[in-house]
């Protein structure tokens, strides 16, 4: 019988097996999904079955840099529990993913094939959890440096800087991003929609103040400036010296310029399933037995 692309996609998601293997066993099983899974299991290709759909919101963030620190990559590798996130094999695999991405300028799609993918499936089988390489990002600074920072294994940052930047300054800038969570590089980078929305809020707050219009306008102008600096990297007080903004620090460092940055935190944006309490889990098992 004819095998559809949707069937192949579903089997890949359920088992983690390769596209051709999925298509082959589906043909052999006449399109029967469970039968195809059994065939993959018998051939040792479906050890990830039923794990691919489970929520993987724990894990690690890993970075890798070129020898001259002009290029760097950051990756997030997820698993289901904090216990597995601390496993030596899991951490070593995350490091391998980052190094492979850096060496080959690889994208997330590139890493989903070949040896990296086979190793991932092997870890799923060995550790018994869904393991997923969630995201990969490259930054470069041909006339400068990419600063990197890891806060434990859960937060990682890359900052691309143009200019004569020391390794220590690059790391300090990345550390600042980890701690202060800027949204954009400069105040002028904030979108017009975001600026307009904030103005509307400030106008509404000032409407009932009873102050003269010119005073209200000055209030709004001052508050807008404060807001923009609070969310912009260069406008924020430097985390290691709050008396100095990051912008002032860059000027003092030979007018270095931040080109872009990326901050990854494990599990951000992943919706976790609510955890049942222990008593409820026991009762559920009793009712099911």
SSE map:
Layout (H helix, E strand, L loop, with lengths): L4 H11 L3 H10 L4 H10 L15 E8 L5 E9 L2 H4 L2 H17 L3 H4 L2 H14 L4 E9 L3 E8 L3 E8 L4 H14 L11 H15 L6 H19 L5 E2 L2 E5 H7 L4 E9 L12 H11 L1
Antiparallel strand pairs: 1-2, 2-3, 4-5, 5-8, 6-7
What is the compact description of this entry?
The chain is α+β, with helices and mostly antiparallel strands.
Describe this entry's structure for a reader:
The chain has a three-stranded antiparallel sheet. A three-stranded antiparallel sheet has the order 4-5-8. The protein has a two-stranded antiparallel ribbon with strand order 6-7. Among the domains are: 5-42, Orthogonal Bundle (Helicase, Ruva Protein, domain 3), CATH 1.10.8.10; 58-185 and 256-265, Elongation factor Ts, dimerisation domain (Tetrahydropterin Synthase, Chain A). Helices cover 47% and strands 20% of the residues. It contains twelve helices and eight strands. With 289 residues, it is α+β, with helices and mostly antiparallel strands.
List keywords for this structure.
289 residues; 12 helices; three-stranded antiparallel β-sheet; Tetrahydropterin Synthase, Chain A; alpha+beta; Helicase, Ruva Protein, domain 3
């Amino acid at each position: 019988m004819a095998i559809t692309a949707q069937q192949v996609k579903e089997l890949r998601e359920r088992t983690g097996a390769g596209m051709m293997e999925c298509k082959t066993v589906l043909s052999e099983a006449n399109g029967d999904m469970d039968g195809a899974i059994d065939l993959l299991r018998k051939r040792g290709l479906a050890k990830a079955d039923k794990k691919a759909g489970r929520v993987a919101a724990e894990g690690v963030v890993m970075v890798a840099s070129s020898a001259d620190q002009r290029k760097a990559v950051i990756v997030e590798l997820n698993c289901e529990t904090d216990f597995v996130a601390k496993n030596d094999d899991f951490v070593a695999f995350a490091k391998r993913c980052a190094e492979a991405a850096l060496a080959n300028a690889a994208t997330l799609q590139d890493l989903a094939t070949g040896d990296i993918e086979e190793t991932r499936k092997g870890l799923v089988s060995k550790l018994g959890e869904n393991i997923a390489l969630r995201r990969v990002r490259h930054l470069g600074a041909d006339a400068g440096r990419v600063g990197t920072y890891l806060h434990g294994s859960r937060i990682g940052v890359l900052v691309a800087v143009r200019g004569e930047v020391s390794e220590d300054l690059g790391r300090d800038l990345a550390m600042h991003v980890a701690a202060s969570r800027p949204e954009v590089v400069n105040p002028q980078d904030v979108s017009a929609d975001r600026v307009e929305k904030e103005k509307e809020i400030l106008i509404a707050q000032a409407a009932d103040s009873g102050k003269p219009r010119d005073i209200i306008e000055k209030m709004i102008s001052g508050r807008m400036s404060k807001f923009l600096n609070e969310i912009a990297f260069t406008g924020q007080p430097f985390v290691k010296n709050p008396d100095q903004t990051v912008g002032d620090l860059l000027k003092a460092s030979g007018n270095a310029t931040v080109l872009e940055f990326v901050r990854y935190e494990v599990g951000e944006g992943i919706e976790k399933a609510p955890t049942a309490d222990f008593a409820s889990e026991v009762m559920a098992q009793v009712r099911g037995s």
